[in-house]
Amino acid sequence: MTAVLAAAALLLTAGCSSDDGGAARGNGSASPSDTPAKSSPSERTAEETPPAEGSVKVVRTVATGLSTPWGLAPLADGDLLVSSRDEATITRVDGRTGEKTELGEVPGVSPSGEGGLLGIALSPEYASDHMIYAYFTSASDNRIVRMLYDEQKPPGEQLGAPDTILRGIPKGVVHNGGRIAFGPDRMLYVGTGESGDTGLSQDKDSLGGKILRLTPEGEPAPGNPFPDSPVYSYGHRNVQGLAWDREQRLFASEFGQNTWDELNAIKPGDNYGWPEAEGRSDEGGFHNPIDQWSTDEASPSGIAHAEGSIWMAGLLGERLWRIPLKDTAASAEPQAFLKGEYGRLRTVVPAGGDRLWLVTSNTDGRGEPKDGDDRILELQVS
């Protein structure tokens, strides 16, 4: 513990900011369910531009009393799986009653700083293989594993032994990335961070500061832009949000350092600029963001697509941003909702049609927990 605290202090003294704005900034989705989601009358056609003004209604609080929740994976029956960063557990939340049942603890997780058990996703063949994928920080690296979920076993013993499909993602006290999601192509997409070593982002031989694209077995996915490499895009600082629109276009949120947080449209093989560029840049060769925010207004983690917009959860910003889209550009000014009402917001996941699941993050050591924190909310959006 002393070593971890010393490392954190050294990073802050050197001016390395946290990934979510919990410490002072220095100078230095959703997994597929068993069955396809049914279309809703509220879903917009692919060519329709969303209105400039939207709305958010908190329909209900689904669950309370969660400890350091991070990843969320909806099941086909309406229940939700949620990971705990610090406890390294996965819990099933009844989507109607909010009752919580612990599946088990993921072995090998080494929580410290911003690391621990982070994103989770369901196998694209979950209906038949019952596999849960998880991204976590070990004692030596960040890695991705998959585990069998056996509901017939007693609570607390329902997770099978982890099968590691990818290891060697750089770890740090900060900037561990952690979001994983299966895309429309049934490949596994992974958001990683540069672990505080900014040089890794431009190094295409490193897994840090990247978006990776893998087969479900952990191999570089067919069609990736760099031969025999899992790297899909590079020049990222710390990616914790991944989402696709109805045209199967990928978007990602990214933590800035001192000035600009970003929402990016991801093109395979493109360079997103870090550390040479933070936010928009006139320098050639970098893919500019769709939009950018000051770091105290956003510090974005999860994102989701619904009703023609990207919805982006803000940690330090303590608000939910709506970014209406036309193709891969913003069609109107972003709007902020829920500002300060629920504290830090970590994860947002589509719940079908005009609904979203939203997870707060006030028990992670950087928030100010209120009675009932942390919680999962159901939202109705437009």
Descriptive notes:
By secondary structure, the protein is mainly beta. 4% of the residues lie in helices and 36% in strands. Strands 18, 19, 20, 21 and 22 form a 5-stranded antiparallel β-sheet that branches. It is globular, with a radius of gyration of 19 Å. Residues 28-43 have a biased composition (Polar residues). Keywords: Signal. Residues 365-382 have a biased composition (Basic and acidic residues).
CATH class: Mainly Beta
Please identify, by name, the CATH architecture.
Answer: 6 Propeller
Number of β-strand runs:
25
Q: What distance separates the N and C termini?
A: 46 Å
Low-confidence runs of at least 5 consecutive residues = 1-17, 23-42
- Largest β sheet strand count, sense and barrel closure: 5 strands, antiparallel
Keywords: Signal
Signal peptide: 1-19
Biased composition (Polar residues): 28-43
Pfam family, one: GSDH
Characteristics of this structure?
382 residues, Neuraminidase, 5-stranded antiparallel beta sheet, 4-stranded antiparallel beta sheet, 2 helices, globular
Concise description?
The chain has 382 residues and is mainly beta. It has helices spanning 2-13, 126-129, and strands spanning 56-63, 69-74, 80-84, 89-93, 100-105, 117-122, 131-137, 142-148, 163-169, 180-182, 188-191, 210-214, 231-234, 239-244, 250-254, 260-265, 291-294, 300-306, 309-314, 320-326, 329-330, 335-337, 345-350, 355-360, 376-381.
List strands and helices in order, with pairings:
Blueprint: H1 2-13, E1 56-63, E2 69-74, E3 80-84, E4 89-93, E5 100-105, E6 117-122, H2 126-129, E7 131-137, E8 142-148, E9 163-169, E10 180-182, E11 188-191, E12 210-214, E13 231-234, E14 239-244, E15 250-254, E16 260-265, E17 291-294, E18 300-306, E19 309-314, E20 320-326, E21 329-330, E22 335-337, E23 345-350, E24 355-360, E25 376-381
Antiparallel strand pairs: 1-25, 2-3, 3-4, 4-5, 6-7, 7-8, 8-9, 10-11, 11-12, 12-13, 14-15, 15-16, 16-17, 18-19, 19-20, 20-21, 20-22, 23-24, 24-25
